[in-house]
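Form 12-C: Joint structure prediction
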Amino acid sequence: MKASKVYRPANATTRDPRALKTREALRGALLALLDDKPLEEITIRQIAARAGVNYTTFFRHHTGKEELLDEIAASEIQTLFELTMPALDADDARAGSLALCRYVDEHRSLWARLLTGGAAARLREEFIRLTREFAAEHGSDHEWLPPEVGVIFGAGSTIELLTWWLQQAEPISVEKFATIHERLVVRPLVAK
Amino acid sequence: MKASKVYRPANATTRDPRALKTREALRGALLALLDDKPLEEITIRQIAARAGVNYTTFFRHHTGKEELLDEIAASEIQTLFELTMPALDADDARAGSLALCRYVDEHRSLWARLLTGGAAARLREEFIRLTREFAAEHGSDHEWLPPEVGVIFGAGSTIELLTWWLQQAEPISVEKFATIHERLVVRPLVAK
DNA sequence: TTATTTATGCAATAGAGTATTGCATAAGTT
DNA sequence: AACTTATGCAATACTCTATTGCATAAATAA
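Section 2 - Result
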């Protein structure tokens, strides 16, 4: 008799339609629940139920709800950077801020859920990682500012400002917000 | 027969030496454990054990470990502001930054544990609240910057920078760090 | 000191949520 | 059609939070 192990379709590269459907359902379920309450108050059972999937199945794809949210956050921020980086490439600070803020504005409800629902810490980590990569190529050096601090500050305060913006019931315009971001975050970093 | 309820010495104003000792032991135990691992990985049982107190007793003083950490964080940040505000009162931006950074530097291990151990969110909230109070009196207005954003940014990025600084094995000097804080956080806020 | 109040220790217990396993079945793949 | 794989389902184990009743010892008031 061969010892049966816990079956795990798990690894994200699966092509099986059934697995893909389940993974998609789980992502959607978590995002839907994040509309109502923060991650800590969401149980795996609730996610599975909302996804129309058996509780056990959740663990065949993810180790926990945090990991699932990580996955979502990482992919979202990846997209954000891919669509925003080009604009940042130019030396026009305001254009970069504007591109970033526009993208977030166009995906408001998703980003609001991620930032205020419990993924802030993970989003911040990914944001820092990608910012670090970017800074390695385009960063400007200052004798008073260690590069890593610039990265932390740039990523951290951007997240900070975005979180505020996304929480507002009647948020200020993208243009005004981009101006704030440019003056408080970008300009101090490039100023000599 | 009178219905016996759960006895709660709880309220922080108790003068009973036994209760005071217990509360102090619990605070110390949590801080000690935060040296090794983040709050999520610490159980109430561990805190109680480390404090040399029965598990049940924990709940007679606190509703959970988060609340206990909140209590510690709130009192620490209160002290920080009381000792730092006077320096901020002067219009000398650098003096304010320096006073704040000096205080944190002198209480390095405690603040490192609070900021990196799980109290960051709570610390941030209190920091924002106190900053808001301060800004209401000393804040400078800009047509491009809603006062509340200035508060969020000032408090948030200060916490952000401090967290980085406190995590370094060989941190830069207080003076250099204060310069960074002044140039990245304070100056952009007061600049016209 | 004596009497009373109050804080803690201890044991029992309940409940929520996480995590795993074996087997059956159905959907996908070759 | 023969196989491989993903999910459903039921059972189960574990950890951690939280409460309760009673006994005891420490603190306070008489």
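Section 3 - Comments
Residues 4-6, 16-18, 43-45, 56, 59, 63-64 of chain A lie near DNA strand C (CB under 10 Å from a C1'). The two ends of chain A are 72 Å apart (CA to CA).
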